[in-house]
Design a protein that fits this description.
Layout: H1 21-29, E1 35-41, E2 51-57, E3 59-61, E4 71-73, E5 79-84, H2 85-99, E6 109-112, E7 115-118
Antiparallel strand pairs: 1-2, 2-5, 3-4, 6-7
Helix pairs in contact: 1-2
């Protein structure tokens, strides 16, 4: 008999992703206890997009039905907030200053399709890159 593995049984490095700085800014802008559940890029012509609309709502647990126990958003509690790319980049810089870790990777690795490769930004060290100011 073989054991069926779940996502929680997988090694932690396959589940790790770098922080989502757009979501971190949005959660700070949303009311306390609200949940971000829809992310939209509003300027499709810019590469990468420069403004995002995030919709959040108050979460609740379903009490009956086939999805009993899973989370959903209470109707009538939706709130939209806007996050610019500049705000997300400032959040990333604050994260790197606070933790000393690279904001683009986890332990020096980034996920490319189905494998992990060295981060180009930090050279695979996992440490924040210090920008040198020319003198």
């Amino acid at each position: 008999m073989t054991k069926q593995l779940s996502m929680l049984d997988q090694p932690t490095e396959t589940l790790a992703y770098p922080p989502n700085f757009i979501e971190r800014v949005a959660l700070r802008k949303l009311p306390d206890g609200y949940w971000a559940y829809r992310f939209e890029a509003l300027d499709y012509t810019a590469k990468p997009p420069t403004i995002f609309r995030i919709t959040g709502g108050k979460p609740r647990t379903l009490k009956s039905g086939p999805r009993k126990g899973s989370l959903t958003v209470e109707s009538g509690t939706s709130v939209e907030v806007y996050v610019t790319r500049a705000e997300a980049l400032a959040e990333e810089q604050a994260y790197e200053d606070e933790t000393g870790k690279c904001g683009a990777c986890v332990d020096g690795k980034v996920r490319r399709f189905s494998e992990f490769v060295d981060c180009r930004r930090c050279g695979g060290t996992g440490r924040a890159v210090v920008k040198k100011v020319p003198t």
